[in-house]
């Protein structure tokens, strides 16, 4: 495990050397980092980490994005997620898997009232429609490992919420 300064990520290129697979779940919130900080973390840091990973020999990059990611979206969150998906794909990994989960169901130490309300609502919906709009973070993690152990045949594979549920059961 290496601790890096994302503001000086290029100085930590050695931490990205010699890995066949890279997993990226980096992200923040606009409320926590502001609009510029959100873009810097969720797009710029992720894109730079992907470039360093590829230069270091990474062949398969697994990116956690978001349901609805679209580089042409009018919504900052979805636009940034779509932009970073495009940037990561352009790096040229042998294989790139993009996860687009719905609402992530998890317990957080920090208080995010609106997210908590969404989790309660989607957690209740999940009892009736388990793969519709949300996914437990443990399921995402299992699916990420499974996609590396059993990679698809496509160079770029995008997994939406339902596919994440299915792969996470494997």
TrEMBL record:
State the Gene Ontology BP annotations: import into nucleus
* GO CC annotations on file: cytoplasm
The Swiss-Prot or TrEMBL record annotates one GO molecular function as: catalytic activity
**Ranges in a coiled coil:** none
Q: Which residue ranges does the record assign to the NAD(P)-binding domain?
A: 4-151
Looking up PANTHER family in the UniProt record yields: OXIDOREDUCTASE HTATIP2
Quaternary arrangement and interactors, per the entry? Monomer. Forms homodimers during oxidative stress. Interacts (via N-terminus) with elongation factor EEF1A1 (via middle-region); the interaction is direct and competes with EEF1A1 binding to guanyl-nucleotide exchange factor EEF1B2, thereby inhibiting GDP for GTP exchange and reactivation of EEF1A1. Interacts with nuclear transport receptors XPO4, IPO5/RANBP5, IPO7, IPO9 and KPNB1 as well as GCN1L1/GCN1 and LRPPRC probably through their HEAT repeats. Binds NCOA5/CIA.
Name the record gives this protein: Protein HTATIP2
**Encoding gene (name):** Htatip2
């Amino acid at each position: 495990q290496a601790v890096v300064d994302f503001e000086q990520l290029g100085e930590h290129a050695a931490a990205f050397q010699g890995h066949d697979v890279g997993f990226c779940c980096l992200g923040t919130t606009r409320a926590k980092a502001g609009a510029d900080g959100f873009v810097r973390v969720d797009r710029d840091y992720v894109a730079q980490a992907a470039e360093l990973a590829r230069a270091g020999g990474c062949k398969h990059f697994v990116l956690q994005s978001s349901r609805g990611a679209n580089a042409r979206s009018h919504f900052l969150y979805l636009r940034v997620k779509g932009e970073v998906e495009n940037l990561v794909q352009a790096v040229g990994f042998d294989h790139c898997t993009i996860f687009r989960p719905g609402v992530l169901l998890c317990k957080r130490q920090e208080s995010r009232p609106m997210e908590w309300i969404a989790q309660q609502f989607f957690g209740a919906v999940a009892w009736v429609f388990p793969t519709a709009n949300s996914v437990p973070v443990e399921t995402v993690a299992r699916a990420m490992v499974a996609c590396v152990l059993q990679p698809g045949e496509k160079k770029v594979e995008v997994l939406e919420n339902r596919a994440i549920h299915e792969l996470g059961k494997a």
